[in-house]
């Protein structure tokens, strides 16, 4: 049992090397794959990037989620959402409500219900990755749990360790949070980011962004649009072009 009086360990402060960037690129992902020590871990890194899925979605994949004929992967995303209600009339409340907007009674303690929203999407997967996945299944890699043949059969925590260990072995630098400037460890979500950035660099049209939004499973467009802000280098190039064009016209 965890001791409630024990102080949590301090987070290790990350040190900058001078070669950090905001997102992983294709070469970085190749280095991550090469740094894995077994076929399962290689597939974990590869599928996180090639699918652009969340880590919870990856570890929940089962063999019957893969359609090898159509080349698709079925992703189910279960999201818990807490909804608040007025104890007097049952009207929906926001987190900041002190009075019910429907009956006007003072809200001392709202009733809470946890709603589960289940979303499913079919994602295409490239043929090379499908072939590797087929070979992994034929080798007996999947693990049977609760009546399902899970492809990897490991926890999200262990999958994060796989990515972190590969990044350390590949000697990749930490990443920089594009919003805060803080250093970040390379994690499964950074591979999802890398997929989104690669997709945006390939096609940043309105239709391309809509397709990316659906692929990533974003409910809000601004969650997808943030990947247009790819790096400080691109911003610098844009700024440089502005003044070059001005000089050409003067």
Q: What does this protein structure show overall?
A:
It is a single chain. The chain is of the alpha+beta class and 250 residues long. It has 2 domains: 13-60 and 154-232, no CATH class; 77-124, no CATH class. Helix content is 41%, strand content 17%. The protein has 9 helices and 8 strands. The protein has helices spanning 26-35, 39-51, 55-59, 127-138, 156-169, 188-202, 206-216, 221-225, 232-248, and strands at 66-67, 72-85, 92-93, 111-124, 143-145, 148-150, 175-176, 183-184. Strands 1, 2, 3 and 4 form a 4-stranded antiparallel β-sheet that branches. It has a two-stranded antiparallel ribbon with strand order 5-6. The chain has a two-stranded antiparallel ribbon with strand order 7-8. A hairpin with a 6-residue loop joins strand 2 and strand 3 (92-93). The longest helix has 17 residues, at 232-248. The mean pLDDT is 82.
Question: What is the gist of this entry?
Answer:
With 250 residues, this protein is of the alpha+beta class. It has nine helices and eight strands.
- Strand segment count: 8
Helix content: 40-55%
How many DSSP H or I helices?
9
End-to-end separation? 74 Å
Compute the average pLDDT: 82
Element layout with pairings:
Blueprint: H1 26-35, H2 39-51, H3 55-59, E1 66-67, E2 72-85, E3 92-93, E4 111-124, H4 127-138, E5 143-145, E6 148-150, H5 156-169, E7 175-176, E8 183-184, H6 188-202, H7 206-216, H8 221-225, H9 232-248
Antiparallel strand pairs: 1-2, 2-3, 2-4, 5-6, 7-8
